[in-house]
Amino acid sequence: MAVLGFNITRIELKKEPSAIPQGQVEVKLTPKIEDVRLGEMITPTGKINGVEIVFKYEIAYNPDIAQGVVEGKVLYLPPQKDKIDEIIDMWEKEKQIESVMFAEAINFLTVELTPALMILAKELRLPYHVPLPRVEVRTQG
To answer: Are residues 35 and 56 in contact, defined by beta-carbon separation less than 8 angstroms?
Structure first.
């Protein structure tokens, strides 16, 4: 197991009212881990303890036409349940987590947040943060 669930506590995308993009617009997503602590999830079979990862996902446009942020929590269950204390201790001492755990949490968040961010970008008439497939017409020669 890895990520058991997540909870969004804040989502915001703000467009600059006077910004008119000219040329290429770049969208940069920056995921950050704000805190790691002991968390739990209540299931029909009882409570499950895991690692609660508090995240902040920043969205920046270049040129500066908009910016946004998504904040929340992810409940992560390491493959060995006895590693929970070790993960939390490592965070408290070094403010770091294992790269595999980071990748699993961020990949999960990217999949979960992409549809919501695309809807917000569409409503604000901003470029999407991921390219959409396009159809090209080819002429046969």
So the answer is: no
